[in-house]
Amino acid sequence: MWRRFPIVFFLYIALVSKWLFTSYTVIFNRSIHKQFTRRLSLSGEIVPATTYVESLKQKFKGFDFPAYKLREWFSTVHQVFFDCKPEQDRTDCLGQLLKQTNLEAFTIFFVVKEPNGAYRFMDASFRNLGTETLERFINRYHQQLESMTRLSIQTIGLEYVECIGHSYQEPTTSTPFK
Questions:
Q1: 103-117 residue pLDDT tens
Q2: pTM of this structure
Q3: Which has the least CB within 10 A, 32, 65, 91, 153?
């Protein structure tokens, strides 16, 4: 029995070492990959909002996006219209916005098709009743609220085509009642 002990012990140590090395390598590689792809995807996928709207006008003939609804930038990764101070990095600005919990409301922009075949812009706003982030709301909208919006649009005789972006309303600093 004692003769086998060194062999078994050696195999045990080898397996544990291999498992630890593999686990550490996988965890390390995942974190590097996440950091690299997040930075790469965010930095290359932020375009001026007017550029994105022009591409929508080409895709949907007769489509008109109201200029007063536009924000300065658009993230094609997150489909978010957002504003950013000139001295601030757009990627960092977007990251902060997606995590912000004090936004007044969230706005969804979508395209509908009228019975005559014309495309039209519509939007819907959802108040932020708690401390929800824009990032969480976008996921919740597509998982739960989009089907409700689609049905609501159908009840007025329009066809919901697609969601074209998300936006937000800044928190108000003044209190309406004193």
A1: 999 999 999 999 999
A2: 0.70
A3: 32
